[in-house]
Amino acid sequence: MKIAIANDLKLACELLNNLIQKKTRHKVIWTACDGEDAIEKCSQNKPDILLMDLLMPKLNGAEATREIMGKAPCAILIVTANVAGNVSLVFEAMGAGALDVVKTPSFDINTCEVETQDLLKKIEIMASLIESGSSKEIPYVLPADPSFAGHTVPPLLLIGASTGGPVAIRKILSSQGTDFPYATVILQHVDHEFAKGLVSWLQEKSSVRVSLVEGETELKAGEAYVAGKNAHLVLNPRMRLNYLPEGSLDTLLNKPSIDVFFNSVARVSGLKGIACLLTGMGSDGAQGLLNLKNAGFDTIIEDWSTAVVYGMPRAAKELDAAKYCLPIDLIGVKIRELIATKNSPAAVRS
Q: Which residues form the CheB-type methylesterase domain (predicted)?
């Protein structure tokens, strides 16, 4: 893979360059000292993966990401020294098309090895997604599990997203009123370190309460729950959200996997709701969306016209998993229409 680095600190460029040259199979093709420089070099020699800093002169990493994704799109990993202090900018960059974010490895002997491994792991995951063009399929068995009987759960709104997802999810949440009658579950491909920041960022524009799933969690109408660990979220036999034990389905590229969660819901007979698969690279969520459609859910995918990356919605469309294909600005409208129809007197009588 051809890798490029955009960072205004020469020391950081040298650190990243050395790590890639010595510890990966990839090659660094250029470095850029600011956002404008990165845009120009991308147009001349497009990398497979660009390691982009957030805080740079002329154009910051979020602005540069938006320009690059419009002119010479490539996989962008935000690599920055202070993630917690730049939450809004992090998710602005991810909304513009950055795939993920990771902390720049430090020179602190107590943390540098862990931070280095985190960076190298993310680079390899991106490389695998690019090379394969999809995520690995998840085994799925349709029959309902009888152990689920006797438990209740409110109607569900399920949202799965990856590249460009934070902004898309925020638009959907901002369209919900305070009396939203469904429990919303969100699976966004993002490292667990940044999940709390994502929750805070989504809450700013949301009328419903947004919270992080830390462990077994009861679902309540009018609240939104965000998967927040590097583990697979499922709906368990007690009809509550929880994570699979550490080591479960470790071969899957995405943790949490949208497919794993969608399938855990689809196998419960009698559940009703709406499921959305938004912008993202690969195919995670496509098979699960089809299973939800077959289980009676209304299913929606984001149209290519607004998706930052049309990979996941395209995979779902190819499986005929979606009842509706809409631009992001119309998905919230459609959700409200579907809920209103189901709650109408005629629907109740039927």
A: 150-342
Can you give the pLDDT at residue 349? 38
**CATH code of the domain containing 192:** 3.40.50.180
117 and 208 belong to one structural domain: no
Q: Per DSSP, what are the bridge partners of residue 271? A: none
Active site residue 145: no
Active-site residue, from 135, 162, 264, 283 = 162
Range of the domain at 54: 2-132
Rounded to 10°, the helix 87-96/195-203 angle is 90
Q: Is 141 exposed, middle or buried (0-12, 13-18, 19+ CB in 10 A)?
A: exposed
pTM for the model: 0.81
Mark whether 284 is an active-site residue.
Answer: yes
pLDDT at 239 exceeding the cut of 90 = yes
pLDDT above 70 for 135: no
Catalytic choice (189, 232, 257, 298): 189
